[in-house]
Design goal:
The protein is 74% helix and 1% strand. The two termini are 18 Å apart. It folds into 4 domains: 174 residues, no CATH class; 181 residues, no CATH class; 91 residues; 118 residues, no CATH class. It has 599 residues and is mainly α. GO terms for molecular function: inositol hexakisphosphate binding.
Amino acid sequence: YDQLSKYLMKIHQLDDEMLYSEDKQAIIDEQQQEAKEFLHFFKIDQSEFQNYYSQMIDKSQHCIQDLFNLGNKEKYKNGYKKSNHQMLAQINLIFHEQALILSQIERFAEENISAQQNLINQYNQSSANIERIQNLQLIDFSQFQLWEKLYQAYSFFFNVPLSNATRILSIKSGKDTVSNNISQTYFLGVYVCLAIYFFIAYLDIAIFWPQEHISTYTLNKSQIEVIRINFIISLSIILIGINQYIFEKSRINYIFILDLPPTKITAGSKTTLKYGVLHLIISCLCNIFAIASISEFEERGQLSIPLGEILYTVSLTLPASIWLSVPLIIMALYNMIGLFRILKGKSQIARYFMIQFYHCLCPWAQDVTFSMYYIADVITSYELTISDFALDTSEQLCPDYIIAILQMIPSLVRIIQQYKKYKKAGHFYPYGLNGLKYVVALPSKVKNISQVHSNHPLYYVLCSVKVIESLFKIYWEIIEDWGLLTGGQGCQIFRNQRNRWTNILIRRTTMLNPVFLIFAIFQNVVLRFAWALPVFFESYFKNDQYVMLLSFVEIYRRYVWTMIRIDNSQATNCEQYFQQISKDQTDNYGISVVNESHV
């Protein structure tokens, strides 16, 4: 499906180019060649998939017929049906499995019929392609008949009206889009609204009430650091969920690219967003309780939120430090449950993250994969969180030079990873040059050590090094990581083929909007220099709220980077695949393909 959508996007690009090109025949020839090559892929892939789904239809037909016959037997309508609850649950599970299979077949048939019809209408009306679309229509008709029979079988077996059976199986299979829309509306209307409300309430109580002399309170340094850590965790989970949502809607195969365990990734973006928003609600509520428990109000016990007096009474039951620790305790319990599930062999996704974390801590111990340096890159944006965690766990006793060393660890991990890639590949560009990017980042980590900060000449020299680091990273992220503008290593084969560029960008077929890419370039340049604000406005950044805002900005910038990085990696994977099979090699399905000139 991804190859198909990229192909159609390419054809539309060529249509747009024809409006401004003087050599229209060359573009027409390229369109025909693109269509010819893709139809070759499409024909072979469709044959494989049609055989697979035809077999699924046959198996479902036999299974549904058995369920239908079972529902008609009188003994299952009477006492035996009511007494054998275990068997009833097993058969109910079989019904739901069949509904999922039919839903998958239905999506396959509908998408491929539409795509095949488009190709036939515009480029190739051969009898073979017409026969192929007829086979797809036959699969679609067969699954429609099986749906009707499955509804009837469920109705007979569980003795429920046919309309109820239709609704239950449609919801379980994801076929019921109305129920899905209700679920999404419920999420937006309840979880998101509560999160926004409590976050605004926290800002009101924490920032504006002291300014308006409604209340006064004092948080110690450890408590402020815990608040920052809680909000960073919430923001990170929400941004991961947003990334997943964009990947799913844009058909970017992030599960394959990051080598995630696909059999266990069933929740996707919705559950991730729900967990993130729920953690934000808990964090805001606990922060409100903590501040209320140590505040002195002009009118004692008044919180300007619903049930304010009751909540204020609840806040006095525990010390502020305990309230602030509740979100961290919940996260720790969640991770302990994940570890227990790993030991029981039940949680592949928890095991995946544990292994990736181990690989990041021991980069010298194994070959470097994309997921390893992708995660290590993300961790480089959590310098302030590393500092907060070190100070909080050491009760503010951790020396500042130790904190500087801890903040260097993510960059050192990336240096080791790039060195291993350089040793294996044997050429300095891009791996050695990428490693230098992290070497340049090391000196700036020491600029916040008190002795360095008080030595103004040395401090400003390190700030100058930070400027060089920022410029280097801006270049590398836009050109190399994202494959934009001059294109970098990944876009070498397109450098002299301007007809393949997306607008003014050298860009492989992207699943993201080019306008978004241009916006990302602009914001990345601006946000990369956000670190300079405390240098020029030091008095403002003595306020911890501004420091927290600065850390939010860096986390947000990093997760925008991840979106385009994954998209670019998908394009790279596709090109490597096409380059491999274009040399008359054969993949696991026996597909042998055409020359390399049009890849």
